[in-house]
Model the fold of this input.
Amino acid sequence: MSIEPSAIATAVEDNFAAQIEWLTKLVGFPTLRGQESPCQDWLARDFAARGWSVDRYCLADVDMAHLSGFSPVMDTDYARAVQVVATIRSPEPRGRSLILQGHVDVVPTGPIEMWQSPPFSATVRDGRLHGRGAGDMKAGVSAMVFALAALRHLGYEPASDVYVETVTEEECTGNGALSTLARGYLADACLIPEPTGQRILRGTVGVMWFRLKLRGRPVHVSRSEEGTNAIVSAFGLIEAIREFTKALNERAKQHPWFSKIQNPVKFNPGKIKGGDWASSTPSWCEVDCRIAVLPGMSLEAFRRELAEVVMKAAKRDSFLADNLPEIVWNGFQADDYVLEPGSDFETAMRAAHHAAMGAEPQETILPAVTDCRFYGIPSLAYGPAGADGHGFDESVELESLKKATIVIARFISEWCGLRPAG
Ligand SMILES: [Zn+2]
Done:
């Protein structure tokens, strides 16, 4: 059973106003870390209303700390980290099964007054829908849901089992995606409609988060020479890691994939706090950092190398030499990911793109992570064109959202096969 590509395009077109309305609602939930449950509850109800069977659970209920790929967490209550898996089960599965996965967690907005329009009130301007998470990746979530809606609109359902998963923790650990596997959801392939600009994601770096914890000797600032300043000491460690990053990017020039990207290893001291009083030299400082790890290097080896860099720098600091800083590996301990060319999955995705767009899709590699790394089955990121992810005025281009939805609907019809909606 197959449908004319033009019929799929028309069905997506017919539903597109409803899709934008749905996406607007989704962007309206401020799904910052730990605050995703109202959004997930809304999605769970929406999926149930579509006739899908829904598993709603939280991360605290899943035993997964022993699993490979698990990232340790601090200061986070996993009783509030709600995940949703909806299943569309075929009575007589014929095609290949599929996971459609999207994350609904978003990163903080920064100062609201820097946004042209409020981040959690989606606004359409110049053919783009703006809002925090609009591109990364609530538009992609709407694409996977409305691809299925378009097929239903035409009177069809997938002929194989399809799992629609909305997860959290993608922006900090990946433990949401990992939990779906711990809970037993597996399929022949996994599609994640991250905002790739309708390109096929060929690979990503690994990513690690860590916290530098330093101490200082507090004295009255009038006698600052007699004490030390933990914030100033932290600058010394940050500088040493920046130098190390330069060396890593020199090494990257030999890398088979990442030599194509200038300076693919990014180091970011992303959050700093320390000290208690403006007239006392700070006795403590904590810096939350992120760094990339190129494919081919184990995370364990990388942790050792980075720790050596930090401790060597600490030994140049009179106080830190005797009070070594601590490195806490919390958050992402994420492996790299490469989509090996030549899978049936990629071939089917390319054909769907070609049918809808009239040309071969381009490929991309990213100096950042996606959840694709977890699945151990062919996993691929392909989605609409987003802009300003993690920045002010984040957006998604609506025309590319429509096109990506058409491509995904076409892909589902080929990969899973179709049966009459019953
Ligand atoms: Zn994302």
